[in-house]
Design goal:
The radius of gyration is 18 Å and the shape is globular. The strands form two sheets. Strands 3-4-5-6 form a four-stranded parallel beta sheet, sandwiched between helices. The longest helix has 29 residues. It has ten helices and six strands, in the order αβαβαβαβαβαααβαα. The protein has one domain: NAD(P)-binding Rossmann-like Domain (Rossmann fold, 3-Layer(aba) Sandwich). It is of the alpha/beta class and 253 residues long. 52% of the residues lie in helices and 12% in strands. It starts with a helix and ends in a 7-residue tail after the last helix.
Amino acid sequence: MGIGFELAKLFAQDGYNLVLVARDQGELDSAAAELKKMNHIDVQTIAKDLFDPENAFKLYDEIKTKGVEIGILVNNAGHGHYGEFIDSDLRTELKIIQLNISSLVVLTKLFLKDMVQKKEGKILNLSSIASKSPGPWQSVYHGTKAFVQSFTEAIRYEVKDKGISVTALLPGATDTDFFNKAGMESSKIVQDKSQLADPADVAKDGYKALMSGDDMVVSGMKNKMQVGMAAVTPDEKNAAKMAKQQEPADKKK
């Protein structure tokens, strides 16, 4: 399971009712059954493919039709695509931009308006340490996360006096199915499993920051150091360092 499910477990443990969204209804049903065992909570599931941002509008409408009030929004959906930009699949990359950016913007806009009316609410956006550095071999993914980070910081400022907190969670490489879906199994960063964070630890960092109303949290000491160094290092050197981490393990010198 990934960071999203680990976050859902933390909400369930604290007695929050949940609305889970993913593409696969079977996976949703399995997750809902496990979460219900943890606590006496209501777990609703909605299957939607958020690669199409029109489905983000439909998701909002369906939740409103059900009469469900969303007090905390977690934008966890994200996808990557591995390869040098000149060789990677453009249609796939455009879909990733729609998922990582467009659908996130739609859901944030619609639910944030409701929260502002109620003068309370919390939003957690899954950013990444990828937002802080150019990412050869994942150029589009890094670009989308740079958007998410900047966007999150901007809207947080806009609503800071309206009873709303907006938090960014910045994980590093984490032991989830992300790399498999992105086609990154051959990359150096995935080959060394010791470098991958536990998604449960990442979720705990994000949950704590969200509930504390923090602006952002970088999960993991190693990642905090990396982000700190990236802030004072020229982009060309950051790109070179990231390329070394993400290039194929069998890439010839």
